[in-house]
Amino acid sequence: NAGVMQNPRHLVRRRGQEARLRCSPMKGHSHVYWYRQLPEEGLKFMVYLQKENIIDESGMPKERFSAEFPKEGPSILRIQQVVRGDSAAYFCASSPPEKIASYEQYFGPGTRLTVT
Amino acid sequence: EDKVVQSPLSLVVHEGDTVTLNCSYEVTNFRSLLWYKQEKKAPTFLFMLTSSGIEKKSGRLSSILDKKELFSILNITATQTGDSAVYLCAVTNRGGKLIFGQGTELSVKP
């Protein structure tokens, strides 16, 4: 059973470009969460999605950031017009449907975004 | 505001020592507390605790939750150099998201 998959693992963008980060949850998991870890800081929640729905985006910056989890395919975190302050590790986590009554979240390997 | 506080922030021990990591929290509509181990990559799930007073064990690691006093501890006995990592405590509420503490950086010297 493959774990949470994220790609790319490393992404370099110049200021002003767009960054697209992908996350495929574990098989059978329908909840996806994105977290950001800035250098020397802890993990911070960004957004929580279920298939075709954004459940909680309270941690997302108001501008330039968006996320989706379509019916088919991976979840995408998109950052438009990147700035140096966006350089961080972006982690995706997934958890099973609530009916299974497990709230454990399993993390992917992360995407390390560097903005030059 | 929901928050999770871990202590100590860093800890250096020698192989064979026993360590106790602390996590206290304030969160509305608490649902569960989770411990993760992070070694310069993705956090690896260790434990999830939802009920007070029930110890969870996995090898040399164990953890317990006190919902009255709002804290949890993570114990590691007979530490090994491979235990060196950042240990993260996180809490979930009914909203589902994880609220993380700052982490405890554990360094185990041979």
Structural write-up:
The complex is a heterodimer of chains A (116) and B (110). Chain A has 116 residues and is mostly beta strands. Chain A is 0% helix and 48% strand. In chain A, the strands form two sheets. In chain A, strands 2, 4, 5, 6, 9, 10 and 11 form a seven-stranded mixed sheet that branches. A four-stranded antiparallel sheet of chain A has the order 1-3-8-7, with no helix packed on it. Chain B has 110 residues and is an all-beta fold. Chain B contains no helices and eleven strands. Chain B has strands at residues 3-7, 10-14, 19-26, 30-38, 44-49, 56-58, 61-66, 71-76, 85-93, 98-100, 104-109. In chain B, a hairpin with a 5-residue loop joins strand 4 (30-38) and strand 5. Chains A and B meet through strand 4, strand 5, strand 9 and strand 10 of A and strand 4, strand 5, strand 9 and strand 10 of B.
Which key terms come to mind for this protein?
A: 116 residues; 7-stranded mixed beta sheet; 4-stranded antiparallel beta sheet; B: 110 residues; mainly beta; 6-stranded mixed beta sheet; globular
